[in-house]
Amino acid sequence: MGGQYRITGDKYPRMRRPRRRGKLVVLTVVSAAVLGVGGWGTLQLIDVFTGGDSAAAAGTKSACGTEAKPSASPAGAAKPLPRPNTITVNVLNATTRSGLAQKTADELKKRGFRIGEVANAPATFDKKVKGAGVLLGPATALDTALPVLGTQLAGAERRTDPARKGAELDLIIGDTFRGLTAKADADKALTALANPEPAPASKKNC
Predict the structure, then answer these.
(1) Angle at 117 (CA atoms; ends 132, 176), nearest 5 degrees
(2) Helix or strand holding residue 59 (H, E)
(3) Contacts of residue 76, Cβ cutoff 8 Å, sequence gap at least 6
(4) For the region Disordered, what residue ranges are annotated (predicted)?
(5) Max alpha carbon distance in the chain (Å)?
(6) DSSP H/E element including 172
C-alpha cells in the first residue's frame, strides 16, 4: 500500500479516526445539554417571581375583553310610564251588543283609570272592529299611556292619530270582545311593564 501508510514489517498498522473529532462532538453535545437545562431553569425562575398563573389569566382576560354588565334600565324606556289614575279613557262600543261600554267603563274605573265619555263608537269604527278592540290615542301616547291601557285588554290593536289633541285615550270595543283581561293577569302585565327585566350580560367567547 502506498500513500500515508507503509507496511514495513510483518504487522499491519491500525487505521483509526483522529481522536480530536470525537472530543469535539462530545463537547458540543454536552454544551447543548447544559444550555438547555440552564434555559429551562431560567424560565422556571421567571415564572416563580412573576406569577405565571396570574400573567396567563391576565392575558386571557385581555384577549377575551371585559364582560358587559346588564343595564338597570331598558334602552327603549326613554319616558316614564304614567299611572292608571292619570289616564283618561273614553269607552266606545262598536258592536251590536248593548251595555258593553258602560260595563267595561265601570271595571276600568275599579282598576284605577279615569273614565271620560261612555258611548257608541263613531261611524268610522261602528261595526268595523273585527278583533277584541282598538286602543286609540295621540302620537305621544304610543310608548306611554297606550301600553298601560293595553295591559287591560290583551290582543287589542293600538293606533295613534297625529292630528289628535289632548291626552285622552279611546277603548273601542270590537266584535270578539268578551271582557277585559282578568285583573290578576292585568296587574302582572302592568308590573312587568313598569319594571322590565334587565338585558342579559353579553359574553365574548374565547
Answers:
(1) 10
(2) helix 52-64
(3) 143
(4) 63-83
(5) 144
(6) strand 169-173
Tens digits of residue pLDDT in 22-51: 555 556 655 665 555 555 555 554 554 455
Q: Give 130's strand partners.
A: none
82: amino acid identity, one letter: P
User: For the stretch 98-124, what's the b/e string if a residue is b when 16 or more beta carbons lie within 10 angstroms of its beta carbon?
Assistant: eebbeebbeebeeeebebbebeebeee
CB-CB contact of 114 with 149 (8 Å): no
Which residues have a Cβ under 8 Å from the Cβ of 111 and sit 6 or more positions away? Answer: 84, 152, 180, 183, 186
170: nearest Cα among 129, 131, 95, 116: 116
Provide the whole-model pTM: 0.60
Q: What angle do CA 53, 57, 59 make, to 5 degrees?
A: 115
